[in-house]
Specification:
The protein has 270 residues and is an alpha/beta fold. The chain has nine helices and ten strands. Helices cover 31% and strands 23% of the residues. The strands form two sheets. Strands 6-7-8-3-9-10 form a six-stranded mixed β-sheet, with helices on both faces. α4 runs antiparallel to α5. The relative contact order is 0.20.
Length: 270
């Protein structure tokens, strides 16, 4: 294994079955007049990590933005507790219990860490906001000493901690994380992996988009491969660990470059 790629061991245990599911059914999304997500169906169970893999341009980020309410789906539904969240405003989706960490570490860079956390609690009661802030700082104690620092002054790893903390202050039932490790040093990624484990063990469902298949499959219980806007594989993450050729095939874009999947896939949950 390359010394530069972080890993995701030790492996997570399989949680008890649960009825709570965030269900994407037949979701289609347009961007710039082009259909980039085509009838995608995915289920994210509470207390599990669900990996969404695929090459660049597959439509993964557009899918997440549709779940967040930033993009309005052309068709399909995002169901939670019998309610369709598709097309609702972002604040309504977040209030329903779904938080999204989009790619690119989007922060209010001129505001302090404290103010960025406070903005994320605007829809909560004072009691909920204080509990959420306390929980976020327990997960990321590194931010405690940075509360008065502007977000622009943080390192890339600290900014990633802050955007994750913003998502978690509202105690969401489901979190969609687009590119957990992008641009981060392996040591920082290793710091973030236990947080993902901890929130899933507490019952939160996670949809994880990740450039390193080893990380995603080391955390995930179920996995999907997306290519050309469609789901090309769905099943247990263990299937992809045991048959890495499925990943190799999906990541080949008509002879163009391959994604980061050449490292051996770590053992994980069954």
């Amino acid at each position: 294994m390359s010394p530069t790629e972080p890993t995701a061991s030790p492996e997570p245990s399989v949680p008890e079955p649960t009825a709570a599911v965030l269900s994407l059914d037949g979701l289609s999304v347009e961007r710039g007049g082009r259909l980039v997500v085509r009838e995608v169906s995915i289920e994210i169970a509470a207390g599990e990590v669900t990996a969404l893999l695929g090459p660049n341009g597959a439509g993964k980020s557009s899918l997440v933005l549709a779940v967040a309410g930033v993009l309005k789906p052309r068709a399909g539904s995002v169901m939670l507790d019998g309610h369709d969240l598709a097309g609702r405003r972002p604040e309504k989706i977040r209030k329903a219990g779904v938080a999204v960490v989009p790619e690119g570490r989007r922060l209010l860079t001129e505001l302090t860490v404290e103010d960025n956390l406070r903005v994320a609690t605007y829809a909560l009661s004072n009691e909920q906001a204080e509990a959420g802030r306390k929980r976020a700082l327990e997960l990321f104690p590194e931010l405690q000493k940075l509360l008065d620092s502007p977000a622009r002054a943080l390192s890339g790893g600290e900014q990633q901690m802050l955007v994750l903390a913003q998502a978690l202050v509202s105690a969401p039932r489901f979190v969609c994380i687009d590119e957990l490790s992008l641009g981060l040093a392996p040591v920082i990624v290793q710091r973030l992996i236990p947080v993902i484990r901890e929130i899933t063990e507490a019952g939160t469902g996670v949809l994880l988009i990740e450039q390193f298949a080893t990380i995603a499959l080391g955390l995930a219980h179920r996995a999907y491969i997306m290519e050309g806007g469609r789901i090309q594989f769905s099943g247990l993450a263990s299937e992809l660990r045991e048959k890495p050729e499925l990943l190799q095939t999906a990541y080949l874009l008509h002879g163009r470059e391959r994604a980061v999947i050449s490292e051996p896939v770590l053992p994980g949950p069954t």
